[in-house]
Amino acid sequence: MMLWLRKWYIVGPLVVIIMGHWSSLLHGILLKAAYFPGQGYVVTHASGPIIAAAFVYAMAFDFLVLILTGIRLAFPVIGRSMGQEATLTRLIFTDGLIYFLIAFLANLITTTFVLLDLNPIMSVITNVPAAMASTCVYIWRGW
């Protein structure tokens, strides 16, 4: 949003897309689990299409943000000093691309497992590692 100077034609659609992503996440991932003595709770059913849709939506949103960032960096705003622009461009390319690549790969692995639908456990086994990878790289990006 900063790169686009909070232009309504960029911020508005991004807010709508973010709200759509949150509504898909808040819809809930439908899992069924059963308790087995000696093993604990085991996932017996996972709603693969809903999980896959949430991860594909996240990957598409990350890709859209990458494209918008790339467009702005390719055609910078006139009026900034060259030193500030060069520093900001270098920061966004290094941190932003690393974040996008790690988040995209983590979500791609998870989406692949969900779409393969091997069994209920394998459908959700990479959800937490993907979320952790995205969160850790997002926090690292903020430093």
UniProtKB/TrEMBL annotation:
Record flagged with keyword Membrane: yes
Keywords: Membrane, Transmembrane, Transmembrane helix
Positions of transmembrane segments: 7-30, 50-75, 96-115, 121-140
Protein name stated in the entry: Uncharacterized protein
